[in-house]
Design a protein that fits this description.
The chain is of the alpha+beta class. It has two domains: about 1-315, no CATH class; about 335-465, PknH-like extracellular domain (Protein Transport Mog1p, Chain A, 3-Layer(aba) Sandwich). The protein is about 45% helix and about 20% strand. It has 16 helices and 15 strands. Strand 12 and strand 13 form a beta hairpin. Helix 1 (about 80-100) crosses helix 7 (about 220-245) and helix 5 packs across helix 8. The longest helix has about 35 residues, at about 275-305. It is globular. It starts with a strand and ends in an 8-residue tail after the last helix.
Length: about 475
């Protein structure tokens, strides 16, 4: 799981075609880099999200909110034409009127060329995401069956962000950056509307202090940060759509449709399915969450959510469960000492309902995985590595809402194990699978289930012996 390491909100060109009246309009989601790399929270970046320490949030990946002074200022060589500056100011006023929020300070605006963006991504954006951290993230994703063990996550993220970023707001230096190639047309204006919402959010609600959405907190609370990211991006996505319908010109639509006709995203298209879905999560499910809140009480109701933000992806997936459905907190078991010399803990964190669904959906029907994960009540996972042996292990304890939910999860995970490893051996309330390079164990007891992945049977047995199951809340 990767960690969210660079707290800048990034406009990612994830395209959705929508009908507005009789026109075909293009909506580009502004993806942040807070992407969750299962070791910590992400694709947000995913703002592109990759949280720090959490699957669904992996640990230390591009996308984790970054600590002050960690992110160098992007270099901009493009002077802003007065007419472009005037357009930016107009869009800011339009967005403020639609959203009902007014800026509290002057915003510095910048234009970057694609080459400058690429340099920023290569030299600065991933500056604190080391190859070792990327390998740990890839290992955790691999243990969950989402990536191959040797997947080059760092290179992939670099290529992906270079391909996808259209603009971003940097909340550390409080400046806006828009990537410009052929003028300030519909694409740039559309992106600016989205990113200015983030500037307003930061000025009014304060990402770092007010929402506690920063690298330090997200390293230990990636599930909460994933929920906040969905709130932030869902808010900006809906407002961006409203701006498109209300203020976009015919030329904006023409520019967007022209861009849509020629746009290609080969890196994103080649991304593993779970990664594509996870990058989209804050924009799709986040927008649905915010829309539900707004439909009930207008934008003032959305404003109130920032005072009591969602704490789980469960609440984002099921807006009707906000704010009352709080997660069960489970104590992570300490198994490193039992494993002995050579083993280290990569991280422990919460997988969450969303990533539980993604893990299951890698091998079983997506509708079935959604239904099985829906009974999620809380979890804790621990990821481990033995560098000398180039192996890893992972354990996941999940608490479900009801006995029926636990039994449904048991059925889904057994099917998952059979499809991933081949038909396993069952004994009482436990199932075991083995392949040439991995062993897996699943158990359930009452409202809890246990899942262990290990490189061999001895390691699996050591981990199981060191775990108290069911565990304490």
């Amino acid at each position: 799981m990767s960690s969210r390491q660079i707290w800048i909100i990034v406009g990612v060109l994830l395209l959705i075609v929508v009908c507005i009246g009789s026109l075909l309009a293009l909506t580009l989601f502004g993806v942040s880099v807070f992407s969750r790399t299962i070791v910590d929270s992400v694709p947000t970046a995913y703002i592109l999200p990759v949280p720090t320490e959490k699957p669904g949030a992996p640990t230390k990946g591009p996308g984790t909110p970054q600590s002050p002074s960690a992110t160098p200022r992007p270099t901009s060589s493009i002077p802003i034409d007065p007419q472009v500056q005037a357009q930016m100011i107009d869009i800011e006023g339009q967005v403020s009127q639609l959203r009902g929020l007014n800026a509290t300070s002057t915003l510095v605006r910048n234009l970057l060329s694609p080459a400058e963006l690429r340099e920023f991504v290569l030299n600065d954006f991933f500056d604190d995401y080391s190859p070792e951290e990327a390998r740990d993230d890839a290992r955790v994703f691999s243990l969950l069956g989402l990536l191959e063990p040797d997947f080059d996550l760092l290179s992939f993220y670099t290529d992906l962000f270079s391909e996808q970023i259209a603009g971003f707001y940097d909340d550390e230096i409080k400046e806006m950056f828009v990537v410009q190639e052929n003028g300030f047309g519909g694409l740039e204006r559309f992106t600016y509307a989205h990113e200015f919402v983030h500037a307003l959010q930061d000025q009014i609600y304060d990402f770092d202090e007010g929402l506690d959405y920063n690298e330090d907190s997200c390293e230990i609370e990636s599930e909460r940060c994933a929920a906040i990211q969905a709130l932030v991006e869902g808010d900006a996505t809906i407002l961006q759509e409203e701006w498109l319908q209300t203020y976009a010109t015919q030329q904006d639509f023409a520019d967007l449709l022209e861009f849509f006709n020629i746009f290609q995203q080969p890196v994103f298209d080649s991304a593993p399915n779970y990664m594509q879905q996870d990058f989209l999560f804050p924009y799709t499910y986040g927008a649905n969450f915010v829309r539900e809140i707004r439909d009930q009480g207008g934008w003032s109701a959305v404003d109130a959510v920032y005072a009591d933000p969602p704490v789980t992806t469960e609440q984002i997936l099921h807006p009707e469960r906000y704010p009352w459905d709080k997660p069960i907190v489970l104590t992570p078991p300490d198994v490193v000492d039992a494993l002995g010399a050579g083993w280290r803990e990569i991280e422990f964190n919460v997988l969450g309902e969303w990533f539980t669904q993604l893990v299951l959906a890698e091998y079983i029907n997506s509708d079935r995985s959604f239904e099985a994960a829906e009974g999620w009540g809380g979890d804790v996972y621990v990821a481990l590595a033995n560098d000398a042996q180039n192996t890893g292990a992972l354990l996941l304890i999940t608490q479900w809402d009801t006995l029926d939910d636990a039994q449904e999860a048991q059925s889904a995970f057994v099917e998952y194990g059979d499809l991933r490893f081949g038909v396993g051996l069952a004994a009482n309330d436990a199932w075991m699978w083995s392949s040439t390079e991995e062993y897996a164990l699943f158990e359930y007891s009452g409202l809890q289930t246990l899942l262990i992945f290990a490189p061999d049977e001895d390691t699996l047995n050591i981990i199981r012996s060191a775990i108290e199951f069911p565990t304490q809340n």
